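Q: What would this chain look like folded?
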Amino acid sequence: MNPTDRIKKLLKKHIVTLILIGLIAYIWFRPPATISDLNQALPNLPFTTLDGRQGSLENLRGKVVLINFWATWCPYCRKEMPAMQRFYQDYQAKGFEILAFSTDDDVAKAVQYMREAGYTFPAAMADPAIQQTFGPISQIPMSMIIDRDGHLRHKIKGQVYYGRLEDLVTPLLTPQQTSRSQP
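A: My prediction, written as structure tokens:
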């Protein structure tokens, strides 16, 4: 039997296994996410970052903001954060900001994780007031995108990646794409 015939026979015998491996790899690298399009005004919300800085949603007006709920124990959260960091570095100068809210119980774990991973975007703890403002945080990772006018525009239940952020954020970075000009 020649090598080509052996390969064909092997593929026929293991086609289901190969398809399952491919599907698992796809889901791991591009897990499904549910994206809701919204146009909801948000109240001003004060927060304190992990490094002690005071801020509020009002202070972020004029920027497109990715709000991200995550935890140190969440594998999908750990997987999406490097892409968030790259996107932050590429788009911060264009009016983009990230605010990552940790749902961990232990502040020290969140601080240590952010420091050891070298993430430079702001992070804070997701206290009950913050969680109430954004509705039930039924799963993590969960992200929201706020436009320059402070309106919640997208809710993403599941992992974000660079391409998904480009698709959802870059249209909002141009002034004419804010909530004032869209229904």
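The first strand starts at residue 34 and ends at 41.
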